[in-house]
Amino acid sequence: QTAAAPVDPNSFLNQFEATFGKFEGYRRSGAKGVCAMGEFVGTAEARGLSTASAFSGAPVPVVVRFSVGGANPKAPDNAKSQRNLALQFNLPNGEVWQMGNISAPVFGASSPQQFLGRLASLQPDPATKMPDAAKVKAFADANPEVLLQGRHFASQPVPASFGTVNYWGVHAFGFTNASGSKQFGKWVFEPVGGLQGLTDDEAKAKGPAFLFDDLRQRVKDGKVAFNFNLELAQAGDQIDSATVPLPAGRTKVNLGMLKVTSVAEDGGGPCLTITYNPMVLPKGVEPSADPMIAARAAPYAVGLGRRLTEGAKQQ
Ligand code: HEM
């Protein structure tokens, strides 16, 4: 099998459960989360890059989900771990744009086979209930890019809020405008109010469950908004890998602003029974050749099927 060969979606779901545990009803990744509603307004610069109706300049409702990385619905909020921002833009005429963004500029694997191998290498040994250090090391030595995402989190403070950290799309997408010209780029959602992290002492004092209440307070104060920015790829840039960011200093275009307007009650809301499939794109935006984009579609659908069957839960 080549590195880019497809992986059966049930194999992915089974491996997630074997490695991280099975928490019935919860998303197998990003289990601890909360639904919110937002509004997006696109810019003239975005309209210059893409005909997508999301950029018309009229406000677009967005079904938002913030989550903490991992399969554990009790994952601590005060760890140097992943935060996620998943978005569904509800566009005119029933068109939909879905995406799931993470608080690192890179993902932990560049191909579905490599991701499955990494998850398998982390599977706890039945005797010790711990991953086998030699297996973990052997896989990482042979696939060094799987360590880049974790290194990013280790280098950053614990985010003070879901609303004060950057969320990257990590894949390149193509944007096509009215004259038919196509521009590839990688996007990042950057908090309008700037980044804010916690010192180690502050993180300890906050405890394991502060992010949802913090989000509610900041949204009430009108303080949670993100600039949707696109870094433009240049000829020769590698755009088919979720483990390779664009070179530093690429031109960044502001595509618009997402403002979070309300937060659902714990455990419910409009994001609970949907999945965020990055292949669900509006006309005017298309996937790059990054094999990880298409590889996400079926596992997300199967994951949704499993948790709906079990009784969908979150938090
Ligand atoms: C083949 C590769 C991947 C597999 C098999 C996979 C698997 C999954 C699964 C099963 C879920 C839960 C879906 C649900 O129940 O609705 C999920 C959620 C998520 N994944 Fe992935 N994933 C992959 C790649 C990625 C990549 C490259 C990113 C980087 C942006 C990413 C970001 C997310 C986010 C943000 C969520 C939470 C979305 C939400 O709140 O619903 N995943 N993933």
TrEMBL record:
This is Catalase-related peroxidase. Its cofactor is heme. GO terms for biological process: hydrogen peroxide catabolic process; response to hydrogen peroxide. Keywords: Heme, Iron, Metal-binding, Oxidoreductase, Peroxidase, Signal. Transmembrane segments: none annotated. Residues 1-312 form the Catalase core domain. SUPFAM superfamilies: Heme-dependent catalase-like. Decomposes hydrogen peroxide into water and oxygen; serves to protect cells from the toxic effects of hydrogen peroxide. Has an organic peroxide-dependent peroxidase activity.
